Amino acid sequence: MELSNKKRNIVLSILFFLPVAFILVMLLSKDNYNPLDIVKETVLELPQNEDNIQLKGHITILSFLGKKPMENSTAAFNLKELVYDRSKGFKTFQVVMLLPHSAKAEAEELLKEIKSYEDLRFWHLVYVQDSEIKNMFNSLKSEEDLDENLSTSMVFIVDRDLNQRGRLDDRTEKEIEDNKPLYSLYSYDCVEVAELKNKMAAEDMRVLFKEYRDKRKGDFDDSSQRRSKDLKQTNE
User: Fold this and answer.
1) Please, what are the domains in the chain?
2) Which DSSP state fits 186?
3) Strand 93-100 and strand 59-65: pairing?
């Protein structure tokens, strides 16, 4: 009987302390929460287009497919499978692919192949002039350039207020411990599956969605942006 009572007391103790431990973990997580860094302010709004697609008011993944979009089909499929499918539930999320008018036929063919898997309601092909594509790209912070076909495998995150998001400090914990030089992540390579899956989808997009959910609930503390400003000053 005494052994049975001890077991009961142990079970009751566990049941009591588990919720308390969970709350403590949640509180600590909130204290350590940092929004996704603003790496560039004032990204250009999209030029006038047939479907009136805009960046303002949306969380956008911005892509440049160029004049020969089928050559970038791997990047497009990776983006769809690894990021779009995990993010489409957020109501203001969208993927915008900028292309020259001359690429319309080939781009529509690529879209058909992607659509064979699923309806892409939040996946937009936007056709603009070559010069407008260059202007849009130049308004972003990037370590890569557009190629001769106005394309790149890199994609960019633009928030609802036309700020480019990324990582001002992309070092691993080990690199920080070893005091390695600071380096940033301004865009995400759609050819690199690990980068899309582990950094963009699993971490950065999730953090950005959380930021906007917290803002809607009134739980977001803008003072957490101090980290972004401090890192930006260090990186300049």
Assistant:
1) 37-219 (3.40.30.10)
2) -
3) parallel
> Residue 219 and residue 110: Cα distance in Å, rounded?
41
Predicted confidence band of residue 26 (pLDDT cuts 50, 70, 90) = very low
**Alpha carbons 227 and 236: distance in angstroms, whole number:** 14
Main-chain phi, psi angles of 51, to 5 degrees:
-95, 5
Kindly give the pairing relationship between strand 151-158 and strand 164-166: antiparallel
Is a pLDDT exceeding 60 seen at residue 220? no
Q: Please tell me the distance from the alpha carbon of residue 56 to that of residue 42, in angstroms, as a whole number.
A: 11
What is the SS3 assignment for 137?
helix
Compute the mean pLDDT over every residue in the chain, rounded to the nearest whole number: 85
207 Cβ neighbours under 8 A, 6+ residues apart: 34, 35, 36
Predicted TM-score (pTM) of the model is 0.80
Question: Which letter, b or e, does each residue of 20-44 get, where b requires 16 or more Cβ atoms within 10 Å of its Cβ?
Answer: eeeeeeeeeeeeeeebbbbbbeebe
Vertex 102 angle, CA 100 and 106, to 5°: 100
pLDDT digits (tens, 9 = 90+) for 36-79: 999 999 999 999 999 999 999 999 999 999 999 999 999 999 99
Give the type of residue at 166.
Answer: G
